[in-house]
Amino acid sequence: MGLNRVTQTIHGKVTALIVYVDDMIITGDDKEGISRIQKQLASEFKIKNLGGLKYFLGIEVVRSRQGICLSQRKYVLDLLAEVGMLECKLADTPITQNLKLSECSDQVPMNKGRYQKLVGKLIYLSHTRPDIAYAVSVVSQFMHSPSKDHMDAVTRILRYLKSSAGRGLMFSKNDHLKVDGYIDVDWAGKF
């Protein structure tokens, strides 16, 4: 079952209902629309209004005067605890500079299921951590046949996450629609 979203726009006002299994967000700029949906749902189901969004699907939402910050600090710490790396040595970057991973028959094979599970969790984590996106894309290329070198690269990402567990995305309050972007590429390894 995936994430489902229904959006309604009436007279330029938007109301959105986002559902994942038994978790739900109702949001928008139409307070009457939000109230109408809450009443309709309450007539059919037992629901509980938890107030402003603070945590959803492993993503923490923190509001301040500066804007809204999305992070997955708890998700990172839970992942590190799961793999026994809460006390690991820290890394200052998610991947070693100029690292070239490849498939070689003489490499020590790793547990494929464990590797796939870890990389899958890193892929989900990269939603709020664009700083690991490149490193995760590199290690995800070897999910069909991981080796010790590939797992070492995953471990490096985890060590980096330990050093920056609370980092996330900041959506600043401002009066303009300018978008700041982030990019981390190596131009297909040509340089």
In a nutshell, what does this entry contain?
This protein is of the alpha+beta class and about 190 residues long. The protein contains five helices and seven strands.
Question: Any chance you could write out the topology, listing elements then pairs?
Answer:
Blueprint: E1 4-10, E2 13-20, E3 23-28, H1 31-44, E4 55-56, E5 59-63, E6 67-71, H2 73-82, H3 112-125, H4 133-139, H5 148-163, E7 168-172
Antiparallel strand pairs: 1-2, 2-3, 4-5, 5-6, 6-7
List key phrases describing it.
alpha+beta; 2 domains; 191 residues; elongated; three-stranded antiparallel β-sheet; four-stranded antiparallel β-sheet; 7 strands
Question: What can you see in these coordinates?
Answer:
By secondary structure, the protein is of the alpha+beta class. It has two domains: 49 residues, no CATH class; 96 residues, no CATH class. Helices cover 32% and strands 20% of the residues. It contains five helices and seven strands. The strands form two sheets. Strands 4-5-6-7 form a four-stranded antiparallel beta sheet. Strands 1-2-3 form a three-stranded antiparallel beta sheet, covered by helices on one side. 19% of the residues are buried. The mean pLDDT is 87.
How would you sum up the major sheet?
4 strands, antiparallel
Tell me the count of domains.
2
* Helix count, DSSP H or I runs of 4 or more residues: 5
Distance between the termini: 42 Å
In the predicted model, the low-confidence regions spanning at least 5 consecutive residues are none
> Could you give the count of β-strands?
7
Give the overall average pLDDT. 87
* Proportion in β-strands: 15-25%
Work out the radius of gyration: 21 Å
Shape: elongated
Structural class per helix/strand content? alpha+beta
Give the topology string: H per helix, E per strand. Answer: EEEHEEEHHHHE
Order of strands across the widest beta sheet?
A: 4-5-6-7
Q: Please estimate the helix content.
A: 25-40%
Give me the oligomer status.
single chain
